[in-house]
Amino acid sequence: MGRPKKTTKAKEPVRIRERKLANGNRSLYLDIYSKGVRKVESLGVYLVPENTPFDKIQNEHARSVAEKIKSERIIALQNYGIANLDKVMKASMPLLAYLEKYASEGNGLTESTMKGRKFMRRKVEEYLRSTGRLNIAMLEVDLDFCRGFINFLRTAKNRRLKSEERTISNCTGLQTQAVFTAALNTALRDGIIERNPMTLLTSKERFHQQESTRVYLTIDELKRMMATPCDDGELKKAFLFACFTGLRLSDIRTFTWNKVLTTPNDSTRYIRVRMLKTQQVVNVPLSKDALGYLRETEDGDEPIFRLSSAASVIEQRLAEWAKNAGIEKHVTFHVSRHSYATMMLTIGVDIYTVSKLLGHKNVATTQIYAKIIDQKKIDAVNMMDRFFDKDRQA
Predict the structure, then answer these.
(1) Selection from 220, 229, 198, 214 nearest residue 334 by Cα
(2) What are the GO MF terms of this UniProt record (predicted)?
(3) C-alpha dihedral (78, 84, 88, 94), degrees to nearest 10
């Protein structure tokens, strides 16, 4: 009688393995083998030392995510074969891993754009922690997730503010919403997701631009600032120069004589600056007042204005100067840019020219200042009505 044949257990095509990390965590990855081809897929999912009950819950979720992805890979192998597995693997990438990549990659992008991406990524992580679903995959980002994230932003705390009651502003919420939408649009173009669920949100569910109440100096107030001494003479020159050019503080800090040019036909002096925030190039003619605030330097590449590196110091000195000038408004350095915009519109410069002078990408941004001027006109008419009402009552 012959020996019974040995039965060999079929080898699993997809296995979950662990890799120990230097920080004590363990990274989970998939070891995929099919038809002589091996692939290794990092899941971006981690096990942490179980020091607290929450750690245990987090690890259970991480293992659950890994098992779910493993099952999806086995089905994908059966349906599409290992040759088409990469496309399926993309959609299973953890959302945080994708956003980390999105926030760190951006050659040629401005510093403010990169900060916006990193801020958005932090807020998504905070939201995921609040739901206990830290390892959610890209394919799980649906309309309900987007609704939840936007609602979370409406109550999210602003860590930069000391008060526990302060939430992020509507403007910050609007920007974060836009950056997250852009990230998913990139994922859509890269074939990671099939549709951007952020585009399915209704108008009521989204953040919207609110009417802006921008602080600015009237021409009379600007004259008072010019006539009032400032303890920091360099700051006074820089602020007033910004009032006549609309430059932001970041561009004032790096402003040099090499950026002051002359037209060949009529010798008009103007500045050409690539704005640090938007990378937009602006050409702004210089008035005699503006030229008067520029000191001579030995080198054309040397910054003209020597300002404190601490923004808080600048704002404090500006506040004291404004107070001495009898101005009760909250004057920050950026008020100079608002003042330039409203002054240009007040003296009759058309909105499209003002938009170009400010380096706005969209004239709609400039229209905020036009609304301020329109409101001033309405207020003036109302004051006139009240004045004549008194005469009629007499």
Answers:
(1) 214
(2) DNA binding
(3) 120
Give the start-to-end residue ranges of the domains of the chain: 14-91, 95-205, 219-382
Other beta carbons less than 10 A from residue 281's beta carbon: 10
89-127: per-residue pLDDT in tens?
A: 777 788 998 999 899 887 777 777 888 999 999 999 999
Of 85-89, 208-212, 314-318, 357-361, highest mean pLDDT: 314-318
Estimate to the nearest angstrom the gap between the alpha carbon of 263 and the chain centroid.
Answer: 36
Q: What is the pLDDT of residue 10?
A: 60
Instruction: Give the residue carrying structure tokens 């002359």.
Output: 262
Among 230, 381, 225, smallest CA distance to 308 is for: 230
Lowest mean pLDDT across 153-157, 264-268, 385-389: 385-389
- The upper half-sphere exposure of residue 241, i.e. CA atoms within 13 Å in the direction of its Cβ, equals 24
The answer to whether the beta carbons of residues 325 and 225 sit under 8 Å apart is: yes
Tell me how far apart the alpha carbons of residues 390 and 394 are, in angstroms, rounded to a whole number: 6
Contact call for residues 122 and 158 (beta carbons, < 8 A): no
Listed range (173-177, 206-210, 288-292) with the worst mean pLDDT: 206-210
Q: Which residues contact 199 (CB under 8 A, 6 or more apart)?
A: 181
Superfamily of chain region 219-382: Intergrase catalytic core (1.10.443.10)
pTM surpassing 0.90? no
What CATH number should be reported for the domain whose range is 95-205? 1.10.150
CB of 364 within 8 A of CB of 352?
Answer: no
The per-residue pLDDT for 164 is: 52
- State the Cα–Cα distance between residues 169 and 158, nearest whole angstrom: 8
Task: Take residue 257 and report the two structure tokens written for it.
Answer: 């004589």
